[in-house]
């Protein structure tokens, strides 16, 4: 499999879906929102973008299966397979409220091993992409994680839980601790964008729990290819399908230590 060539073709599919999303953004109305669960929004834009991505990616690599957020393929995901892992519109809540921080995120993985990652953030027209062994890039410029060595030099990103509040108290303790130890924390509302920004050196680290594989697959590849480190909350490698992630530059281990102590 020529991963570089496949990445370039994937970019074309992603940009077509992203163009559709931006076209719909101009006329989107709040009454078109649906609820998958409490605080978990979806719209026809998510579903249609996913259908377009699945159609395009199926033509590129017919042997690959799909893990998709909106389940439009009807497939039962096999985490051990060769999978396209798709979030057609990461940051749906931002999108429906007119906040311009969202993206299309597509990853290809063999089991837990990321092979390709493509993220397009249309509002800044930033295309983040990479493939295993080929580096990570944004609009043709090679990416490298931040050179910061200590948590005290870092700006971090995270997400706030919108369900499963049983761990809320511990999560707030982590926030309080990191507020005192860093330059600050940001919550943009789109995990794939957060991860792309870690790869680009804009954030020194990112952590979150209650995530899905489609939130992470592309961004994980980008961070690894940009020289960063990715683990789950226990320091292991079960982040892609395990639901929690810690990612960053050299501050990763210090960030992980805070999380492990509290969480």
From TrEMBL:
Mg(2+) 1 binds at residues 69, 87, 89, 215. Its cofactor is Mg(2+). Transmembrane segments: none annotated. InterPro entries: IMPase (IPR033942), Inositol_monoP_metal-BS (IPR020583), Inositol_monophosphatase-like (IPR000760), Inositol_monophosphatase_CS (IPR020550), Inositol_monophosphatase_SuhB (IPR022337). The keyword Metal-binding applies. GO terms for molecular function: inositol monophosphate 1-phosphatase activity; metal ion binding. The keyword Metal-binding applies. It catalyses: a myo-inositol phosphate + H2O = myo-inositol + phosphate. GO terms for biological process: inositol metabolic process; phosphatidylinositol phosphate biosynthetic process; signal transduction. Its EC number is 3.1.3.25. Keywords: Hydrolase, Magnesium, Metal-binding. Mg(2+) 2 binds at residue 90. It comes from the Bacteria. Belongs to the inositol monophosphatase superfamily. PANTHER family: INOSITOL MONOPHOSPHATASE (PTHR20854), INOSITOL-1-MONOPHOSPHATASE-RELATED (PTHR20854:SF4). This is Inositol-1-monophosphatase. It comes from Salmonirosea aquatica. The lineage of its organism: Bacteria, Pseudomonadati, Bacteroidota, Cytophagia, Cytophagales.
